[in-house]
Write a structure and sequence with these properties.
Layout (H helix, E strand, L loop, with lengths): L2 H13 L12 H8 L3 H13 L3 E4 L3 E4 L9 E4 L2 H10 E12 L2 H7 L6 E11 L8 E7 L17 H9 L5 E11 L1 H6 L6 E11 L5 E10 L4 E4 L8
Helix pairs in contact: 1-3, 1-4, 2-3
Length: about 240
């Protein structure tokens, strides 16, 4: 079991009061045995919950539950592809519109398609799971037209679109390309995110690639400043 799945199960247990505020989580050794995972993987999972403000890790005392809900709008760490994909699992997409439409010049450049090529375009607001707060992002997902029938399965908003493509079409996401740029949130997106126009934000583009490097889907997320934090851990490669 990977760190993201362990963190998700522990988070659910905390929210169900299995571990109430002030209580301690099981020891790292107990969690390793419970989830069949290495100590490193368990520590990654606990680190994720710590960054969400749900636990405090104290030397000699283990991990103590400090809150039943995340104390930041959304915090994402990345040390692996699994952790990057955890973002889609930890958030829920409320779909605003779904349509098959030709790509204009700007969209074609973003998704790497030809101008006029018709892709399934899904758009909506994204929230943290279990939290009724302001949305953490506006999301536009462009789905390869080969998988357009995924539209019929979008009712379960907690299932990531890339996962639906994998399950329905036997595809596998082998690689994710990610670009992050600063932006100003304007127009309809600002309105949907409950912002005044020209607020600062982050534009995060993720391209989900299959085993043959074909693009399965592309997600463009606009995050308002203050509602999203992104952290990364880089390890030195052996021999460098």
């Amino acid at each position: 079991m990977n760190a993201g799945d362990i963190a998700s199960q522990l988070r659910d247990a905390i929210q169900r009061q299995v571990y109430p505020v002030g209580a301690g989580l099981p020891t790292e050794a107990a969690l390793c045995e419970r989830f069949g995972a290495s100590r490193y993987t368990v520590r990654q999972a606990l680190g994720h919950l710590s960054k969400l403000g749900m636990i405090e890790r104290k030397q000699g005392s283990g991990s103590i539950v400090s809150a039943t809900e995340p104390q930041v709008s959304y915090a994402q760490s990345m040390g692996s592809l699994d952790e990057l994909m955890q973002y889609a699992k930890d958030t829920v997409l409320t779909v605003d519109r779904v349509r098959l439409e030709p790509a204009g010049a700007r969209t074609a450049q973003t998704i790497g398609s030809g101008v006029g090529e018709r892709w399934l375009h899904v758009s909506g607001r994204r929230h943290s799971v279990g939290r009724r707060t302001a949305p953490i992002a506006w999301t536009d997902i462009y789905i390869n037209p080969r998988f357009r029938t995924v539209e019929d399965y979008l009712d379960d908003k907690t299932v990531p679109v890339y996962r639906l493509i994998e399950e329905l079409f036997g595809e596998t996401v082998d690689q994710v390309e990610q670009d992050i740029t600063a932006t100003l949130v304007t127009g309809r997106v600002a309105e949907k995110l409950q912002l005044t126009p020209r607020q600062p934000g982050l534009r995060v583009i993720r391209r989900y690639l299959g085993h043959d490097q074909a693009v399965l889907a592309i997600a463009v997320n606009i995050h308002p400043a203050g509602r999203f934090r992104y952290s990364m851990v880089l390890n030195r490669s052996v021999g460098l």
